[in-house]
UniProtKB/TrEMBL annotation:
Source organism of this protein record: Flagellimonas allohymeniacidonis
Cofactor(s) named in the record: Mg(2+)
Family statement drawn from the similarity comment of this UniProt entry: Belongs to the phosphohexose mutase family.
Any Pfam family: PGM_PMM_I
Residue ranges annotated for the Alpha-D-phosphohexomutase alpha/beta/alpha domain, each copy included: 44-182, 217-305, 317-436
GO biological process: carbohydrate metabolic process; purine ribonucleoside salvage
Record's keyword annotation contains Metal-binding: yes
Annotated GO MF terms: magnesium ion binding; phosphopentomutase activity
PANTHER family per the UniProt record, alphabetical: PHOSPHOGLUCOMUTASE 2B-RELATED, PHOSPHOMANNOMUTASE 45A
Alphabetically ordered keywords of this record: Isomerase, Magnesium, Metal-binding, Phosphoprotein
Protein name: Phospho-sugar mutase
PROSITE patterns, sorted: PGM_PMM (PS00710)
Amino acid sequence: MDTITTTAQSWLTDFFDEQTKKEVQNLIDNDPEELKERFYKNLEFGTGGMRGVMGVGTNRINKYTLGKNTQGLSNYLKKTYPNEALKVVIAYDCRHNSDTLSRTVSEVFSANNIQVYLFSELRTTPELSFAVRHLNCHAGIVLTASHNPPEYNGYKVYWGDGGQIVPPQDGEIIAEINELSFEDIKFEAKKELIHPIAKEVDEVFFDASVKKGSFGAAGKDDFKIVFTSLHGTSITAIPEVLKRAGYANVSIIEEQAEPDGSFPTVQSPNPEEPEALTLAIKKAEEIGADMVVGTDPDSDRLGIAVRNLEGEMELLNGNQTMVLMTKFLLDQYKNKGFKGNEFIATTIVSTPMMEQMAKAYGVEFKTALTGFKWIGQMIKDFPESHFIGGGEESFGYMVGDFVRDKDAVTSTLLACEIAADAKAKGSSFYEELIDCYVQFGFYKEKLISLTKKGISGAEEIKQMLKDFKENPVESVQGSKVLWIEDYNTSISKNVQTGVEKSIDLPKSNVLIYETEDGTRIAARPSGTEPKVKFYISTNATLNTAADYKSVNSQLETKIEGILSELNL
């Protein structure tokens, strides 16, 4: 008997419920390929915690895999804080089974004598991050799979600082989990230890969001917003935050306002995908709105569309919104006077324009591996420094440090402040972005994501990245490769001179080529989806805003040439 079948048969004992045993037996009897997919490994923590397809099996999200996680985390908390009365806070999003899974997680914590604060209804991820510190908890959990397809769910772990767990802590927790058998899970709830929470936390979070995201923008009465929650949790927060900040002209896409884990009106609930904002952009054209905002299911990512130079709605990418938000915040700090300890941050696959902006303003620039947990960790590691703001190319941004994860709630308000103020001054969000290109260099990026599902897909991704490393690119569109940054070996090598520098970041499966003209090509596997991602960044000088269209066209042509060269 093979290992997979043996593992599956261990799920046929009396510890598991009847429905689970029935499904497992059916897989053993009738579907060996699906059995293999579900039991060939244990679901692992990735960039954004643990995510996976829901269903029975060790490689699936279910009450037992999450119960085992929670039991291991409970044991770890007790070892870490041996003499403290432990507290955790738990939130969940709109996905199928999120409410019942959050209840299961709460019950396991309570069975381990840990006080649990459980949101009584779905809430955003940024509010969960905020609530960890607000309630003085030792840890927090949010049940979400972010923007993944409907069949997914997930489990993100936050620590007492409100940020996600990072190495070595995540490894220590995983080791604790791996020591357990499923039969070690304590499912017998102590209901007196589970405390429902709702509006009392909402009120404090909303007030903090308005305070951090408002800058006295002019022109709010004349600024029209179309907002869609894409069937997710942001409907519980963003409309109220905008209202409290003085935005009265907010049109909500009602067809997408009802939380629904099936996401019936979109192919993917991901604001990175233009299709997701189709209904909102159509509405914006009908009513002459200035801005469209759409958020993912747990409200940590936001997509923004604004009117371009032709007056048409255009979806901006995460790099574009990030640089303009950061510039706006830097201007606010500059007007008050820098204190000398400020910094901005982004990730290694995001636009290099962030570093140019930091140099121009004389503030510190920090860069991290992909994933907002690393930016949150910076704030923890450098308590003497003051975080202004920062983001990553994948449509995430964080305003200040009151939330320690990407925050679409406060970022939406900040985007509206920038756009309303610009409009009142005779400019626009888009024109302000072009001005950034004139000041700091015109950087244009492109992301290519290739989906490769299942066991064979994982092997294919592994092989693609191996080929990318073992057959190095020598030039890109006629520009010689100058540096190869290998985050697996922590070595950055100048291939022209042979000079090597160490990379002072944790090891990661990322490879980046940089050419003599500053073009960058990065490759990495996704930490949350069965995808391999290629990030292209090009740049040019933009002397005046009047040259924008021609230079933009040149960069688009260059990117197309790069994709052709790489067969992407």
